[in-house]
């Protein structure tokens, strides 16, 4: 019974969210390819054997496959053809609809359109949330100071209003919390409005370990709370909502890059990286927390998916863009052997990373201890 409950609570929301995001990503590739006149042979949600599918009017096979962790769009003529005539042209009659025959700029656009679709999707659903429900908003004022905290040592006082942290203009308390959490043990410059004056102070958020969604993370803690009152939702007109959603997407992208930068430089522990198990857990928790939390979580995941696919790793969209960049510089495509080696290295890297983050998930969720307890 508990097993079925876990599937309903965590697995199904995860698969549903992932399916939507993969569909959006691959739809970006598909629409760009069709716009450039490339024939799309297969549009698959998932990998492996086909579960259900149909062939559309354009000849594309739309299908759901057995392994629901990803998807792909297969286009006609993705690789250099082997059947060339003496003048270097393709010998069949379908060269006009092949990917290989398209100009470099169109091929790069088709590749880039997938991640772009994820960013645009995040903006669209956040804009919808901000215009229908409202944008979460809490004033950035200081209500209480925890004795002995970093805030007290820095000289913050009740009644202060955050104006700027570093180069970021502060409008909501959520911004303060986000910046502080990403700055454990790092000095930050804070500008507050105190009465009629602006005061600049320096603070070093305390590095504390917390457990969020079953994962132990190190975050910064300043030791302040706001004056009080519930979070309010400010509804925007459609144009303002799109602008605020775009700004929010840019900020979230910057936060993700900042966190990854801290992990790569050793300022944060690599154990904080999560994989599919942790995403499934968070998906279930968000589904139980309510519609607003689900929308925000889907937007964050969509941004993550778009950003990760732009990393310059072979097999990912960013890796293909690197190949196209080299082709632009050399004036000819990367050799098949070099590309093959690169793709194998990229595959090995992705597999190792998947194993690593999955192991992190299982350790953080104490699954390993549970299994050891069963056999000892």
Q: Care to give the gist of this entry?
A:
The protein has ten helices and twelve strands. The chain is α+β, with helices and mostly antiparallel strands and 376 residues long. Mean pLDDT is 79; it is low at 83-88 and 367-376.
Give an overview of the whole structure:
It contains 10 helices and 12 strands. The chain is α+β, with helices and mostly antiparallel strands. Among the domains are: 168 residues, no CATH class; 92 residues, PDZ domain (Pdz3 Domain). It has a 4-stranded antiparallel sheet with strand order 6-5-7-8. Strands 1-2 form a two-stranded antiparallel ribbon. Strands 3-12 form a two-stranded antiparallel ribbon. Strand 5 and strand 6 form a beta hairpin. Helix 1 packs across helix 6 and helix 2 runs antiparallel to helix 8. The longest helix has 34 residues.
Structural class: alpha+beta
Q: Radius of gyration, rounded?
A: 24 Å
Continuous helix count: 10
In total, the number of strands is: 12
Order of helices and strands: HEEHEEHEEHEEEEEEHHHHHH
Mean pLDDT over the full residue set: 79
SSE order and pairing:
Blueprint: H1 2-35, E1 40-55, E2 61-75, H2 104-132, E3 135-137, E4 144-145, H3 150-154, E5 161-165, E6 168-169, H4 173-181, E7 188-194, E8 197-203, E9 206-212, E10 215-221, E11 224-225, E12 232-234, H5 238-264, H6 276-289, H7 291-309, H8 317-330, H9 336-364, H10 367-375
Helix pairs in contact: 1-2, 1-6, 2-5, 2-7, 2-8, 5-7, 6-7
Keywords:
alpha+beta; 376 residues; 50% helix; elongated; disordered C terminus; 4-stranded antiparallel β-sheet; Pdz3 Domain; 10 helices; two-stranded antiparallel ribbon; 20% strand; single chain
């Amino acid at each position: 019974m508990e097993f079925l409950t876990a599937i309903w609570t965590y697995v199904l929301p995860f698969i549903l969210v992932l399916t939507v995001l993969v569909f959006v990503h691959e739809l970006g590739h598909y629409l760009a390819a069709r716009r450039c006149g490339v024939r799309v042979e297969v549009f698959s949600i998932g990998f492996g054997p086909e579960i259900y599918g149909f062939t559309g009017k354009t000849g594309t096979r739309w299908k759901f496959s057995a392994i629901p962790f990803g998807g792909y769009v297969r286009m006609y003529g993705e690789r250099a053809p082997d059947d060339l005539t003496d003048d270097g042209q393709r010998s069949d009659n379908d060269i006009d609809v092949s990917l290989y025959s398209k100009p470099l700029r169109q091929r790069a656009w088709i590749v880039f359109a997938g991640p772009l679709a994820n960013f645009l999707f995040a903006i669209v659903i956040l804009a919808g949330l901000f215009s229908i429900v409202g944008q979460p908003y809490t004033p950035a004022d200081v209500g209480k100071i925890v004795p002995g905290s970093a805030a007290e040592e820095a000289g913050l006082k009740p009644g202060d209003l955050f104006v700027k942290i570093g180069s970021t203009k502060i409008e909501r308390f959520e911004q303060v919390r986000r910046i502080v959490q990403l700055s454990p043990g790092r000095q930050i410059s804070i500008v507050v409005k105190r009465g009629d004056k602006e005061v600049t102070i320096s603070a070093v958020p305390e590095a504390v370990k917390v457990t969020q969604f079953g994962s132990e993370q190190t975050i910064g803690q300043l030791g302040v709370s706001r004056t009080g009152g519930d979070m309010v939702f400010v509804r925007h007109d459609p144009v303002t909502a799109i602008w605020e959603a775009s700004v929010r997407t840019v900020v979230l992208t910057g936060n993700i890059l900042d966190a990854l930068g801290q992990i790569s430089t050793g300022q944060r522990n690599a154990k904080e990286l999560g994989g599919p198990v942790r995403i499934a857990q968070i998906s279930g928790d968000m589904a139980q927390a309510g519609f607003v939390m689900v929308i925000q979580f889907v937007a964050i995941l969509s941004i993550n998916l778009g950003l990760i696919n732009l990393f310059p790793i072979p097999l990912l969209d960013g890796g293909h863009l690197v190949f196209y960049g080299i082709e632009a510089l050399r004036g000819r495509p990367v050799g098949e052997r070099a590309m093959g080696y690169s793709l194998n290295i990229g595959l090995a890297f992705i597999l190792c990373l998947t194993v690593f983050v999955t192991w992190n998930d299982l350790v953080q969720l104490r699954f390993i201890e549970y299994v050891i307890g069963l056999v000892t």
